[in-house]
UniProtKB/TrEMBL annotation:
The chain crosses the membrane at residues 63-83. Keywords: Coiled coil, Hydrolase, Membrane, Protease, Transmembrane, Transmembrane helix. GO terms for biological process: proteolysis. It is found in: Membrane. It comes from Caldichromatium japonicum. Its main location: membrane. Residues 78-239 form the Band domain. Belongs to the band 7/mec-2 family. HflK subfamily. SUPFAM superfamilies: Band 7/SPFH domain (SSF117892). It comes from the Bacteria. Residues 1-30, 348-389 are annotated as: Disordered. Pfam families: Band_7 (PF01145), HflK_N (PF12221). This is Protein HflK. HflC and HflK may interact to form a multimeric complex. The gene is hflK. The lineage of its organism: Bacteria, Pseudomonadati, Pseudomonadota, Gammaproteobacteria, Chromatiales.
């Protein structure tokens, strides 16, 4: 029998703690007390009619305000968003562009007032373009290039152009034809490839900025241009001839770099020898002039002595280098004559084989044929000249 039925006595489990009755609590009473406490917390009135469950009043305004506050906090919390380092957040207020936010945590007015679109601005997109184009010198060349781009302005990319990728493709096709059409075939196929690629990149970027696509062209890589298959053999021959020309020019330049320094060195050595020879002759001439002036000074002081000394010195210089035999026949004696027999025998041997050539001016005196002529002594010649004067 329950503790609250008639005749059951007052055995309230909540008020009989510590007593000996340890029966389980009634579930209905527990629910009723919980309702009373919640009603007092939110401003409600306690149950009527002896505490029967289900007789409570309507929720108060305080409870409604609390629920609305919780919902408002949850709604405001939905406005928190995080932008990654490689992204940009584009804020739209009622569908219209408001501003752009950078990386990091941000807050916006939650939906439906503001919405955010995250755009990856570091992602590189690649576009490949192939075409056969007519050059300025009326030749057809096949070109292939890749255009790499990324988003520079997220707002322009989303709202200014309906299809930025298609615009980039059309601009690439147009600028390739413009640049290649203004260039010659040899320039496109050889060293001008990098210049052509740079010009195409600048022109494409100019169109992207004019149309406000929000794209930035990072690089344009142009593959080697190829001629059509019908004339490929002729072009290969022309390229080979051009390579041979460059190789021969390099060889000629290397030879010139080797020969020219040697020629310059030889010229410098000859100039140095000529200057040394000039200086030597000048010095010898100055010495001869100084000696002549010194002799002239002595001649003015003592003409006879100086004249005789010069005459004797001249004879001594001439006779010492002349293989002549001088015989004084005035004494009446028979002097012993020395003859160069070795030279005479040599000359006779040469004369027996062939007629000897006349003595040259460069022939040493010892090899010249001796002249048998009687020459007066120098002193006698001097005395005769004195008597004549």
């Amino acid at each position: 029998m329950a503790w609250n039925e008639p005749g059951g006595g007052d055995r309230d489990p909540w008020s009989s703690r510590g007593s000996g009755d340890q029966g389980p609590p009634d579930l209905d009473e527990v629910v009723r007390k919980l309702q009373e406490r919640l009603g007092g917390l939110f401003g409600g009135s306690p149950p009527r009619g002896g505490g029967q469950a289900g007789s409570g009043g309507q929720p108060s305004m305080r409870l409604i305000s609390l629920i609305l506050g919780i919902l408002l906090i949850i709604w405001l919390a939905t406005g928190i968003y995080i932008v990654e380092p490689a992204e940009r957040g584009v804020i739209m207020r009622f569908g219209r562009y408001a501003n752009t936010t950078g990386p990091g945590p941000h807050w916006r007015i939650p939906w439906p007032v503001e919405t955010v679109v995250k755009v990856n601005v570091d992602e590189i997109s690649t576009l490949t373009h192939r075409a056969a184009i007519l050059t300025r010198d009326e030749n057809i060349v096949e070109v292939e290039l890749t255009v790499q781009s990324r988003i520079q302005d997220a707002a322009d990319y989303l709202f200014q152009d309906q299809d930025p990728e298609r615009t980039l493709n059309d601009a690439t096709a147009a600028m390739v034809r413009v640049v290649i059409g203004q260039s010659k075939l040899d320039f496109v196929m050889t060293e001008g490839r990098s210049v052509v690629a740079m010009s195409i990149k600048e022109r494409i970027q100019e169109l992207m900025d004019r149309y406000k696509t929000g794209l930035l062209v990072t690089s344009v890589n142009m593959q080697p241009a190829k001629p059509p298959e019908q004339v490929k053999a002729a072009f290969d021959d022309a390229i080979k001839a051009r390579e041979d020309k460059e190789r021969l020019e390099n060889q000629a330049e290397a030879y010139a770099n080797e020969v020219l320094p040697n020629a310059r060195g030889t010229a410098a050595r000859l100039l140095a020898d000529a200057k040394a020879y000039r200086d030597r002759l000048i010095a010898a001439s100055e010495g001869e002039a100084a000696r002549f002036l010194a002799v002239l000074d002595q001649y003015h002081k003592a003409p006879e002595v100086t004249r005789e000394r010069l005459y004797l010195e001249t004879l001594q210089e001439v006779l010492t280098q002349n293989p002549k035999v001088l015989i004084d026949v005035t004494q009446g004696a028979n002097p012993l004559i020395y003859l160069p027999l070795d030279q005479l025998i040599k000359q006779q041997t040469q004369a027996g084989s062939a007629e000897p050539p006349p003595p040259s001016i460069n022939t040493p005196p010892a090899l010249a044929a001796p002249e048998q002529r009687v020459i007066e002594p120098p002193q006698r010649v001097v005395d005769r000249e004195r008597r004549a004067r």
